[in-house]
Design brief:
Layout lengths: L23 H11 L4 H13 L3 H29 L9 H8 L2
Helix pairs in contact: 2-3
Length: 102
C-alpha cells in the first residue's frame, strides 16, 4: 500500500520528524514547530510560557527534560536487553562426529 506520493502508506502514522538546523535561529524555529507535534517540547514550552521563563531558562529546562528522557530510555533498553534470554546452543559429541564425517 502506498500513499499519494508513492511512498509507504504508514508514513501518515509516523511521528513528525525533526528537520536539520544549523543555526541557533533555525534550531529555535524548529523547536517551536515541533511543539505542535512533540509532547515533551509542548509541555516544556507551555510551562515556560505560564511561568514567564526567560529564553535561557526555557531551553535549559528543555535540555534537562530531554536528557532525563534519554537516560530513562537507555535504562529501559538496557533492562529489556538484560531480561531477554539469549539463545542457547547445545552441541553434542554426536553432532560434532556427524559433521566431521565426509
Amino acid at each position: 500500500m502506498t500513499d499519494k506520493d508513492g511512498g509507504p502508506a504508514f508514513r501518515e502514522f509516523a511521528p513528525e520528524q525533526v528537520r536539520d538546523a544549523t543555526t541557533p535561529e533555525q534550531m529555535r524555529a524548529e523547536l517551536f514547530r515541533m511543539s505542535r507535534y512533540d509532547s515533551l517540547v509542548k509541555v516544556v514550552m507551555d510551562a515556560a510560557n505560564y511561568h514567564g521563563s526567560s529564553a535561557e531558562d526555557r531551553y535549559t529546562h528543555l535540555a534537562y527534560c530531554a536528557l532525563r528522557e534519554r537516560n530513562h530510555l537507555q535504562a529501559t533498553v538496557f533492562e529489556s536487553a538484560m531480561l531477554t534470554p539469549s539463545q542457547t546452543i547445545i552441541v553434542t559429541d554426536a553432532m560434532l562426529a556427524a559433521r566431521s564425517k565426509p
